[in-house]
Amino acid sequence: MTRIARKLRREPTLAESRLWERIKGSQLGVRFTRQCPIGPYVVDFACRSKRLAIEVDGGQHADSATDASRTRLIEAHGCRVIRFWNNDVLSNVDGVLFAIAQELALASNRSDWFERDEFPEIPERGTPLKS
């Protein structure tokens, strides 16, 4: 699994690179890891301290039954999984960051995360972002 994670770190997608530039180095107040093994899978990003996994998906993941079972298994390992489409990261990275901040706030029960106004309003959790 580590070999796969290393390969994925060397060859990120454009969306993964763009998001990583905005979350690396504790920019959101917590540390994220790229291409992190969780159980038999490798998630795109993970915040181990908040048990949050982030997946950045391309069009091949639309209506994927395997993604649903993958999510259930990762959640069985104690991690909350949130997913974003590549085009959402590329066209609305601030909205994606706000959604991640909301999940982190829920994980840490810190309401002060919601008092920021530098991020645009986004749809409720689970609703795909619009370009």
Automatic annotation (TrEMBL):
Keywords: Endonuclease, Hydrolase, Nuclease. The keyword Cell wall biogenesis/degradation does not apply. The keyword Nuclease applies. Residues 2-104 form the DUF559 domain. Transmembrane segments: none annotated. GO terms for molecular function: endonuclease activity. CDD domains: Endonuclease_DUF559. Gene3D superfamilies: VSR Endonuclease. This is Endonuclease domain-containing protein. It comes from Novosphingobium bradum.
